[in-house]
Structure formats: C-alpha cells, structure tokens
UniProtKB/TrEMBL annotation:
This is Coproporphyrinogen III oxidase. GO terms for biological process: porphyrin-containing compound biosynthetic process. One of its GO terms (molecular function) is 4 iron, 4 sulfur cluster binding. InterPro entries: Aldolase_TIM (IPR013785), Coproporphyrinogen-III_oxidase (IPR034505), Elp3/MiaA/NifB-like_rSAM (IPR006638), HemN_C (IPR010723), rSAM (IPR007197), rSAM_sf (IPR058240). PROSITE patterns: RADICAL_SAM. The keyword S-adenosyl-L-methionine applies. SUPFAM superfamilies: Radical SAM enzymes. PANTHER family: COPROPORPHYRINIGEN III OXIDASE, RADICAL S-ADENOSYL METHIONINE DOMAIN-CONTAINING PROTEIN 1, MITOCHONDRIAL. NCBIfam families: PRK08208.1 (NF006067). GO terms for cellular component: cytoplasm. Its cofactor is [4Fe-4S] cluster.
Length: 449
C-alpha cells in the first residue's frame, strides 16, 4: 500500500517553498513505518516496566455506512451483519487478554473512533462499553470519553446508550454544508440530516460537540467556504476541526484521478486564513492547525493525560497502542479487500493471539525524543523545555538543534522555557511535521508496507 508522502531530506527553506500542505502529522511515527517484529512478543512483556497510571483506551470500529471519496483510513463500508457481530465479540476477547497482561493500571481517557463507531447498533455499543467497564475496570462515569459519529447514523437509541455510559464528547464529520461540495467528496449527505443529528445530540445532553469541516474541495470557493463556516458557527459547537483536503492514492478520489495538481490555483491557504479570522472573531481559541475551541466549551475536569508521555491501549483491528519504547497494531490497509481480510483475521483471534504483539515500530532514544518534540510542538502550548529535560535528561536544543531554525524564520517563539509555534508556524504545521521526520522513518514510509 502507499504510505503517506514524506519530505525528502532537504532544508527547511526548500520545504517551505513547496507549499504548506505536505502531510498531516497526527502521530509519530506514522503507521506506514510499522513492520513485522523480529519475533512475536508477549503483551505482558511489552507493558512490563511501563507507567500504567494514566492510560488512554482507544477502541477502533472500522465500519461505515459509506466510504467517503477522500478517506484513506482503515475502514470498510456496509460490512455483513455477521462480521460486525464477530468483530465486537473479538474486541471483548481482546479486552480480556489486555486485562490479564496489564495488571494494575488506571485509564484516564476513553474514545471510540473509526470508521464510524455509531455504525454499531445500540446493543453492540452497550456490549462494548459494558466490557470496557467490567474487563478493563474503566470508570465510565468519571473518565472523559468521546465517540465519532456520522450524521446518518445518529439515532436516539445509540445516543442514549452513549450518554448513559458516560460519553461526554461527540465528534461528527460534516465536511461541508454545500450539497455540491459533499457530492464532490463522494459523500451523499443532506443538510437536514446534519441539523437533525445536531439537535438529537443536544437533546441527549452531551457537553461537547465537535464538527469536522474540510477545505480545498473541488469547486469550493472562498464564499462557499465562508458559508459553511457560518453554518457551523450557527450550531455553536464546543469544538471545530478544520481539515485541508488531501487526495491520496487508493482512495475514491485518488482512483478518479482528481488531483490538486490539476488545479492551477491552490486556495487552501486563503481558506485557512479566512477560517482563522472568522473563528477568532467568534471567540474560538486555536489549539493547533486543525483544532479550535469555543469560549463556552467546558474545562477538562478529568485526570491529567499527556499524549507525549502516557501510554495508549488500542483495541480492535487497526488500533494503535503506544508504550514508551514500542508502538504496535494490527496490519494496515486502505483498499476494501485488504481491509476486510485484516478485519476477518482479527475477528477470528483467540486469547493467545491477542496476548502477543508481532507488528509495530520500536523507538530508540532518538525516536522517543523526536516524537516528544513533534507531538508537543504542533499544538498549543508548545514544547516546554523543563518537561523535555525531565523526560530525557537533556535539552531539546542539543538533541534537535534544527528546531532553532523555527524562531529564526518567524515560525516559532523561543523564550528559553517554551518553544511555541507562531500563527505562521501553525499554518505550516503540515510542512513542519514532515520536516521533523527522521531519515529512517521517512525511508520506511516511502517504501510502504
């Protein structure tokens, strides 16, 4: 399969000249850098010696009611009901294996992602949440918990289960409020469905609603983008995520050969700037290149969790797990046949299968330091020098001297204690992420898997 494109070794200035949209660095290293391990490892050994006092549990549901044309995630549309049932049962078995391997632990965050977790029936959702409580000991009432939904899958019974099980954040992909633009994304969707879904979510009493929007869609203009932003703001979501469109190989849009390169003008920078201004005027605070938080969003009252330092336990096919030294998962695919085969194998897994790890990426000291810097820098508040020193016993300026180039170019502010991206740096996050990828990880990603 094709990996997410990475930047060839080059100077920062050369990368900046390419334009701001090169690759989304939502994790490091990207899963396309994972490989079969030299030998399978026992799950208990992988977690031995790890700090398990503040873990994130992530459950991956790789099913959707439709496959969006832009999607390059590990997901499949319209699976057979039998496969969905067997998959849910396998995730519950996996929880048993994790329970036995982890020993004493504490989960402080929980999320169901996908795919579309709300594709599951209310009964299937209830089974998963019940097992998370009973098998893994997660306090559903007090643990901050989120779920991803799509408008057409929002139903009263599903929402009732999620709210009863302590879910406090619902994230919904709207992408655009223009009928023509959602058709261009190969995602048939009506505004009436979106509005009805938002109203149902509000009636159910979820404290946080996030809406995802996409800019750079074929046929989208600054005026139509502004209209979508205004439509989203009228719904007063607590969070808004803005995603620039990337057309990747082996996605629906990629197969149709719809490429940004065919358009002589890339309006995404102007659309991004317009969105930043409009959301700021509405009182939203920018957290990263993509995330904006409303002034009425509730404060996070849950236990502290840091993605840079705390572990993640992934459940389900495609879910990634993070320890300090090893990131692991099942294999990864984009195309339907390969995805289905991986999901089928997962659904057949027994306890012994789920008690071992055989695919992932082992992080040496350099990669651990690089990951910490990337994950810190690309969102607010930024890279805290004291946190880095506490974690690694050294200074980022010595370990990653190239970061000093950011302040010189006005992309970051460095006051000696905090390296934080400026507005110009946030706008270039999809350039800076690839720039910070190590040569070894870049080679793996470019080679595919």
């Amino acid at each position: 399969m094709s990996a997410v494109p990475t930047a060839a070794p080059s100077s920062l200035d050369a990368l900046l000249r390419r334009g701001p949209y090169q690759a989304y660095s939502y994790s490091y290293p990207h899963k396309s850098a994972y490989r079969p391990l030299a030998a399978p490892r026992a799950l208990a050994d992988v977690w031995a010696g790890e700090d398990r006092s503040a873990l994130f549990a992530y459950v991956h549901v790789p099913f959707c009611s439709m496959r969006c044309g832009f999607c390059n995630l590990f997901a499949m549309a319209q699976p057979h009901d039998d496969l969905v049932d067997r998959y849910v049962a396998a995730v519950v078995r996996q929880m048993q294996a994790v329970d036995e391997a982890l020993g004493e632990r504490r989960f402080v965050r929980l999320a169901l992602g996908g795919g579309t977790p709300s594709y599951l029936s209310a009964a299937q959702l209830e089974r998963l949440y019940g097992a998370l409580s009973q098998r893994l000991g997660i306090d559903l009432e007090d643990t901050p918990s989120g779920i991803e939904v799509s408008p057409e899958t929002v139903t009263t019974d599903r929402l009732a289960v999620c709210r009863t099980m302590g879910v406090d954040r619902v994230s919904m992909g709207v992408q655009s409020f223009s009928d023509a633009e959602v058709r261009a994304l190969a995602r048939p969707q009506q505004n009436a469905t979106v509005i009805a879904a938002v109203e149902a979510i509000r009636r159910a009493g979820f404290p946080v609603l996030n809406l995802d929007l996409i800019y750079g869609i074929a046929g989208q203009t600054l005026a139509s983008w502004a209209s979508s932003l205004d439509s989203a703001l009228a719904l007063a979501p607590e969070e808004i995520y803005l995603y620039p469109l990337y057309v990747r190989e082996r996605t629906g849009l990629g197969k149709l050969a719809i490429r940004r390169a065919a358009d002589p003008v890339d309006d995404r920078p102007a659309m991004y700037a317009l969105a930043c201004d409009r959301l700021a005027a509405a009182g939203y605070v920018q957290v990263s290149m993509r995330m904006f938080r409303a002034p009425h969003a509730p404060a996070d009252a849950g236990p502290a969790y840091s993605c840079q330092t705390d572990g993640m336990v992934g459940l389900g096919a495609g879910a990634r797990s993070y320890t300090s030294r090893l990131h692991y998962s099942s294999h990864y695919a984009v195309e339907r046949v390969a995805t289905r085969d991986i999901v089928e194998r997962f659904a057949e897994g027994d306890l012994a299968h789920f008690a071992t790890v055989d695919y992932g990426f082992e992080l040496d000291g350099e990669e651990q330091r690089r990951r910490f810097a990337i994950q810190s820098l690309l969102s607010q508040p930024g890279l805290v020098a004291a946190d880095y020193r506490t974690r690694f016993g050294s200074d980022w300026a010595d370990d990653l001297p190239q970061l000093s180039e950011l302040a010189v170019r006005g992309l970051a502010r460095d006051d000696g204690g905090l390296l934080a991206l400026t507005a110009a740096g946030l706008a270039r996050a999809d350039t800076l992420g690839p720039w910070l990828v190590s040569d070894g990880v870049a080679r793996r990603m470019d080679a595919g898997c």
